[in-house]
Amino acid sequence: MDISIGIANSPRELSFETEQPAAEVEAIVTKALESGAKFFTLKDSKGRLFVVPTETFTYMEIGSEMSRKVGFVA
After folding, report:
1. Measured between alpha carbons, how far is residue 29 from residues 12, 24, 61 in Å?
2. How many C-beta atoms lie closer than 10 Å to residue 18's C-beta?
3. What pLDDT sits at residue 69?
4. Are the C-beta atoms of residues 69 and 10 closer than 8 Å to each other?
5. Residue 6 class from Cβ within 10 Å (0-12 exposed, 13-18 middle, 19+ buried)?
6. Which end of the chain is more exposed for a tag (fewer CB within 10 A), N or C?
7. Is 65's pLDDT higher than 70?
């Protein structure tokens, strides 16, 4: 699934694909924001780790877990 994260004072958003379910990603971010943590971490489908500071976190867009259809539809 695709994840896009907005960071304050940054001209570009952070975008990547992850294997984590949407509910798990939402729980990680919610827990970090509610607990007052300094950052939260997410891992992409290639194994890279993204550390996002909660102080400058502005928004998150979580894409659909459905895979895209390929080919022609009659």
Report:
1. 20, 9, 12
2. 20
3. 64
4. no
5. middle
6. C
7. no
